[in-house]
Amino acid sequence: MKILKFLLIVIVISLVTSLKSFADEAMMKKGLEIFNETAGCAACHVLKAAGSQGNIGPNLDTVSMTIESVKEMVTYGLGVMPAFGEDGILTKEEIDIVSHYVVKASQN
Questions:
Q1: Cα gap 14→89, rounded to integer Å
Q2: What is the CATH number of the domain that holds 59?
Q3: Is the dihedral of CA 102, 70, 23, 38 positive or negative?
Q4: Domain-embedded: residue 75
Q5: How many structural domains is the chain composed of?
Q6: 94 inside domain
Q7: What's the rounded Cα separation, in Å, for the pair 98 and 33?
Q8: What is the pLDDT of residues 6-46, one digit of tens each?
Q9: Is there a domain that residue 41 lies in?
């Protein structure tokens, strides 16, 4: 009986881990799409994972950032960078996704 409970716990943990990995993969794919197409971040920023070679904004592969700091920058803009949230260019959900993508992609 203890073995069955143990196996059930292992199966549940494996399933949860697999679902989380799948969700993260889907978020990264959507983030790449927002970065390169919807918001056009690639036109201004370098991000190796996105294949972008912009030269107006900072190189995102070399900048230290958190998801929260990226969300704030994308939402409110800075200098020549548009305020994607305030101007209604991106939804809050899209900002969350692209912020997650930028931080995770720059860490690889």
A1: 38
A2: 1.10.760.10
A3: negative
A4: yes
A5: 1
A6: yes
A7: 9
A8: 666 766 666 566 555 655 889 999 999 999 999 999 999 99
A9: yes
Name which of 18-27, 49-58, 70-79, 87-96 the model is least confident about. Answer: 18-27
Q: How far apart are CA 105 and CA 48, in angstroms?
A: 8
Q: How far apart are the first and last CA of the chain?
A: 44
Mean pLDDT of the chain: 89
Asked whether residue 14 is assigned to any structural domain, the reply reads no
**pLDDT value for 19:** 53
**Full DSSP string of 12-79:** HHHHHHHHHHHHHHHHHHHHHHIIIIIS-GGGT-EEGGGTEE-SSS--TTTS---HHHHHHHHHH-BT
Which range marks the domain in which residue 95 is found? 26-106
Predicted TM-score (pTM) of this structure: 0.80
Distance CA 41, CA 68 (A): 17
